[in-house]
Write a structure and sequence with these properties.
Elements lengths: L2 H20 L1 E8 L21 E3 L8 E6 L5 E8 L7 E5 L1 H6 L8 E7 L2
Parallel strand pairs: 1-5, 2-4
Antiparallel strand pairs: 1-6, 2-5, 3-4, 3-6
Length: 118
């Protein structure tokens, strides 16, 4: 094999693995307390516990994210409407309705995988 072919193959593998990690993230999720019901989120929308929304530190508002609960493989699609979580080691805060969809309510926090949808 030529050095050019190997370099091209290496570049392709590096690009694919970087793209996959840019569209997925694993970490701890929690959900909003009812104390935030009706309050303004960072995007300007009012928080509604019955909508499928979430807070993320960096994703743009309006981004659709598939959240997969890794303990039971249940998933929900949420829209990013707020900033947070502000608790160390958490990657997303879900609305009550979203947490309910993936059975997160009773345990409160759990490991999830985020997949950013196009």
């Amino acid at each position: 094999m030529s050095k050019i072919f190997l370099y091209s193959l290496f570049s392709l593998v590096l690009t694919i693995s970087t793209t996959q990690s840019a569209n997925a993230e694993e970490g701890i999720a929690a959900y909003y307390s009812d104390v935030f019901q009706g309050k303004k989120t960072a995007s300007g929308e009012l928080y509604d516990r019955d909508k499928l929304t979430a807070a993320h530190k960096t994703l743009p508002y309006g981004t659709k994210v598939k959240v997969i609960h890794l303990k039971n493989d249940k998933s929900v699609i949420v829209t990013i409407t707020d900033r947070g979580p502000f608790t160390k080691n958490r990657i997303i805060d879900l609305s009550y309705a979203a947490a309910q969809e993936i059975e997160l309510i009773k345990i409160g926090i759990s490991k999830v995988k985020l997949e950013i949808l196009k």
